[in-house]
Design a protein that fits this description.
Elements: H1 10-28, H2 36-53, H3 61-74, H4 80-97, H5 105-118, E1 122-127, E2 144-148, H6 149-152, E3 166-171, H7 175-183, E4 189-195, E5 201-207
Parallel strand pairs: 1-2
Antiparallel strand pairs: 2-3, 3-5, 4-5
């Protein structure tokens, strides 16, 4: 599927929600199947009506046009419903993480790491590793979180405020880490994933100051239900 950047605003959230409600209503009364092709055609027609009737604020006109471009280009092979649900989950996520926290960034981050350590995560921030001279880092535990010195240095200032983006690397299934950092006010943006010969999976996540992120955000469990 082609990709576009969508501004995750309240107006977009309401528009996407309207489309999903209309889709669900048709399915509940038996007028529409849950097959991706059927859902795609329904949402394509729904978007055309929404544009023609100007049902939503001008602020989402570009988003509607981008979604329609996907529909016209991909036709029945597209999956607008999947994209609608993905945008909806991220809008929910942004709304949930926008709450104000009284503790400094570093204190909240340390608290998240402490909670994860209590659940048997081995944490090293940063590891002692030279990317020019050393072989690729190998984890010491099956559940591990680490970062490197060149990511970690200068991440927080003297007021414990996050002042630059940095990456953490998660070994093992990462959902618990995503959920814990979300509860402490941090959005994780998905980076690279890799697998080594010992069977370890590595997941890279970026954290941005004030959660002003770009890229694909990792969705916490509470928004996947």
């Amino acid at each position: 599927m082609m990709t576009h950047t969508f501004n995750k605003s309240a107006d977009l959230y309401n528009m996407i929600l309207g489309g999903l409600i209309a889709l669900s209503s048709e399915q509940q009364v038996g007028k529409l199947t849950s097959k991706p092709a059927s859902e795609n055609v329904f949402l394509g027609k729904w978007l055309k009506r929404a544009k023609k009737q100007r049902c939503y604020p001008k602020s989402v006109s570009d988003d509607i046009n981008n979604l329609l471009k996907l529909y016209f280009l991909e036709g029945r092979t597209g999956n607008l419903a999947s994209l609608f649900r993905s945008i909806f989950r991220e809008c929910q996520f942004i709304k949930g993480i926008s709450q104000q926290f009284t503790q400094p960034d570093k204190q909240r981050f340390d608290s998240a790491m402490n909670n994860l350590a209590k659940n048997d995560w081995f944490i090293t921030l940063p590891i002692k590793h030279c990317k020019e001279a050393d072989a690729p880092y190998k984890p010491r535990k099956t559940k591990e979180i680490f970062t490197t010195k060149w990511y970690w240095d200068g991440t927080f200032n003297e007021q414990n405020k996050l002042i630059k983006s940095f990456s953490i690397f998660v070994v093992s299934f990462p959902q618990e880490v995503i959920d814990c950092l979300y509860e402490h006010g941090f959005a994780l943006v998905m980076g690279l994933t890799s697998h080594d010969n010992e069977g370890n999976d590595y997941y890279q996540y970026q954290i941005f100051p004030n959660n002003n992120y770009y890229g694909d955000v990792a969705i916490p469990s509470k928004f996947q239900r």
